[in-house]
Amino acid sequence: MEFPQIALANITLSFDAAIDAFILSRHLKNLSPNTTAWYRIHLNQFASFASAKGETPANFSKETVLAYLKAKLTQTTPQTANGALRAIKAFANFLVSEGIRNDNPTKGIERLKEPLHFPRTLSDDQIVTLVNTIAKHTNTFAGLRDLTLVCLLLDTGLRISEALNLKVSDIDLLYGFVRVVGKGNRERVTPLGDSVRILLQRYMLKRASLSHVGDFLFVSTLGTKLTKRQAHARIKFWAQKAGIEGVRVSPHSLRFTFVRKWLQSGGDSLVLQRILGHSSPTMTSYYARLFASDLKDAHKRHSPIDSLAPILKLPRKRIQ
User: Fold this and answer.
1) 206 contacts 140 by C-beta, under 8 angstroms
2) How far is the first Cα of the chain from the last one, in angstroms, to the nearest whole number?
3) Contact between residue 299 and residue 275 where contact means Cβ atoms under 8 Å apart
């Protein structure tokens, strides 16, 4: 998108106006609300820092960007500082492309070195304890919903936002796939294990008995879409009830547990990247050669829930 050229000799563009224009350009690229909100937060923080030095979008310097990153590191992690740098780089590229400035002050600034971070995951015993604890309460709608959500996260590695944004129409129980809209509104198809397909069928039948229910798959007992806060609270509740210690049980740790189980069982890392919704320019040609059937076959061999099915107290048969 191109904005009307600005006569810089006669007008000084404020950070607020420049950020608004940049955010609009991201909306027009169909970025998700979460992504645009992330950009705005980082850019507003940088704008406050640069404005205190008397600088504007048209003239903030490379030294200011470096000083901001140095200050950021005293308050947060290298990962967060790198996120800020990524936002500022995108903003600077936008300013150059729109003729607001001629130079790019972020050119040559490299990402900060990030220490290796190994997220805590659930052991097999902890998975069994968590799942079987929730399975004792599937006589209630909330219990069956929570069991289905936890097993779906463990078996597919979905982000919690992806799972909560699923609609009933995204589930294909016949062929065992779920359509997922991930980061950047990129759509992908993720296979489902047999155990999770049975759970989903039972949950969807129970869900259909609710009144005033909308399109979203995971809902409250009132039929409203389950929120992130509610999902986190429910998973934390079941982890405490199961007596799990030594790991913070959350949607994020369930996603990484899926990754660990997949790799430990010999799952292909390139297939894993696609199932998780990760994108890489260097892998595009390879991904183009992978078909949905390949993913389904690979998932069937490495399904974390199916591999533990003999000791999980989950239903074994579909409802006829």
Assistant:
1) no
2) 53
3) yes
What six digits make up the tokens of 278? 């990760």
Q: Which two tokens stand for residue 188?
A: 């992908």
Side-chain half-sphere exposure of 204, counting CA atoms within 13 A: 19
- The predicted model scores a pTM of 0.65
Pairing state of beta strands 171-172 and 177-181? antiparallel
Q: Is 77 exposed, middle or buried (0-12, 13-18, 19+ CB in 10 A)?
A: middle
Q: Do the domains 124-311 and 15-97 match in fold? A: no
Residue-wise pLDDT for 109-155, tens only, equals: 998 887 766 667 898 899 999 999 999 999 999 999 999 999 999 99
Sheet with 177-181: strands ordered across: 171-172, 177-181, 187-191
| Closest to 288 in 3D by CA, of 270, 276, 302, 301 | 270
Say which CATH architecture domain 124-311 belongs to.
Orthogonal Bundle (1.10)
The β-bridge partners of 167 are 216
The top-level CATH class assigned to 15-97 is: mainly alpha
Cα–Cα dist 161/150, whole Å: 13
* Burial of 197 (C-beta count, 10 Å sphere; 0-12/13-18/19+): buried
Q: What does the alpha-carbon distance between residue 123 and residue 101 come to, in Å, rounded to a whole number? A: 53
